[in-house]
Design goal:
This is GHDC protein. This protein has 423 residues and is an alpha/beta fold. Helices cover 33% and strands 21% of the residues. It folds into 3 domains: 187 residues, no CATH class; 72 residues, no CATH class; 133 residues. The protein has a 7-stranded antiparallel beta sheet, with helices on one face. Strands 1-2-3-4 form a 4-stranded parallel beta sheet. The longest helix is centred in the first third of the chain and has 24 residues.
């Protein structure tokens, strides 16, 4: 559970920046937490939410997001749209794009249609909370018929802010995509920084586009390893951090728990009343390395985004990377290499020359990768396009409300993503 101080700081910060954001029933929650209700913003007050807690605990992620979306659509006067992950908001809006006629019919009739992953008992309890609303259904139909650019603010004209539980790392891809299209014109606010299940910091600057977090000294015991690693590594404490430097996080969340490296690297962006303000940089475990080259996830993502920018009309939805050895014989007989699976909008196929652009970008951005490619000890990267919605299926199969890793090492999920390849 989040410290009460963290929840109060969040509410105070949200209210100061968006004075009408805490209106009763003015927040819709789109978040899947199977088996237990959870508010990612850390304040599970039922009076804030127009979405019932039970909807988020359904056994199916897709069913949970659709039911929560239906309840959110009933509330035209919504002030805050909250999601545990930016990917959850993206998937809920993808469900709106694909199924708005059915949602409009459910709104008009005050019903909840049967669907996979929605048990009948839960459907009966949730349907009892609905009432017919033909006017709102007609408004939904009219707005969706106009297209989906800026759809969020058109459906909820009083909406002030989108709150997401995680907005850094590769979740930034979804934040950027939503800002450019469905949520155009709305600020995104990521209130908390959490690692290894512990709350470590709060974002006091909700109107800034890049999240940064004030580390609170009494929420968990934190130590820091300077990066790059020293010959004789020695942890430092909060009062010994230097602005502009990067540190690996060593965490002891509660008295009696094990001290461990959290796998997170932070950059000290400054100080607020003598407490450090940090920006998450990368996760140490998320790196590609077939020959010891160790390409971090966030830097690979930048190279990929640069390559996508060279493919006219393409917009990157999501991706995962795989080291070829994990795919066995299906990766071919060439030298160890990277297998990359991407979901794109606006482009259905890529030429061989376009596919090579990613390998070229990696060679330009990482001299060690270029050296291994030149020697032939790393083979040419293989790029695969997957069908629309493939990553939503992958998140459903993952069965976790946590962000999906982009360097994938679980064989079951690898086989699933392989089955969605279109070219």
């Amino acid at each position: 559970p989040l410290p009460a101080q963290g929840s109060l700081l969040y509410l105070d910060t949200l209210h100061a920046a968006f004075p009408r954001a805490l209106a009763p029933r003015g927040t819709a929650l789109l978040s899947w937490a199977p088996g237990r209700p959870r508010a990612p913003a850390g304040w599970p007050l039922p009076t804030l939410y127009c979405t019932p807690a039970e909807a988020g605990t359904l056994p199916s992620r897709a069913a949970a997001l659709r039911v929560q979306l239906l309840f959110a659509l009933r509330a035209r006067a919504l002030r805050v749209l909250e999601a545990g992950l930016a990917a959850e908001l993206h998937d809920a809006l993808a469900a709106l794009r694909a199924g708005w006629p059915g949602l409009a019919e459910d709104l008009a009739l005050g019903r909840l249609s049967p669907q996979p992953g929605l048990p009948e008992e839960a459907r009966g309890r949730l349907q009892a909370l609905l009432a017919p609303d033909a006017a709102r259904a007609a408004e939904l139909q009219a707005e969706c018929a106009r297209g989906f650019e800026g759809i969020v603010q058109r459906l909820w004209p009083q909406l002030e802010v989108v709150v997401v539980g995680t907005a850094h790392g590769t979740e930034q891809l979804y934040c950027d995509a939503l800002r450019q299209a469905d949520c155009k014109g709305l600020p995104f606010y990521c209130p908390f920084y959490q690692a290894a299940g512990a709350l470590l910091g709060v974002n006091l600057w909700p109107e800034e586009p890049a999240p940064r977090f004030l580390l609170c000294p009494d929420w968990a015991f934190c130590e820091f390893l300077p990066c790059p690693a020293e010959e004789e590594p020695r942890t430092v404490l909060l009062g010994e951090l230097w602005e502009g430097r990067e540190y690996g996080l060593v965490l002891t969340a509660q008295p009696g728990e094990y001290r461990c490296r959290a796998g997170e690297v932070l950059r000290v962006a400054g100080f607020h009343k003598q407490c450090p303000v940090v920006e998450p940089v990368r996760r140490e475990s998320q790196a590609l390395s077939v020959r010891g080259e160790s390409i971090p996830e966030e830097r690979f993502c930048r190279s990929l985004c640069r390559a996508v920018g060279m493919w006219p009309g393409a917009r990157l939805v999501d991706y995962i990377c795989v080291e070829s050895a994990l795919l066995g014989a299906s990766s071919g007989a060439c030298a160890p290499h990277y297998e990359v699976f991407v979901e794109l909008r606006g482009l259905r196929d890529l030429s061989e020359g376009q596919r090579y652009k990613l390998d070229q970008c990696l060679q330009e951005d990482f001299p060690i990768y270029k050296s291994f490619r030149f020697k032939g000890s790393i083979g040419p990267l293989r790029l695969h396009l997957v069908g629309a919605g493939a990553f939503a299926q992958l998140r459903e199969a993952l069965g976790s409300p946590l962000p999906m890793p982009r360097v994938l090492r679980e064989e079951r999920l690898l086989r699933l993503i392989q089955s969605t390849v279109i070219s």
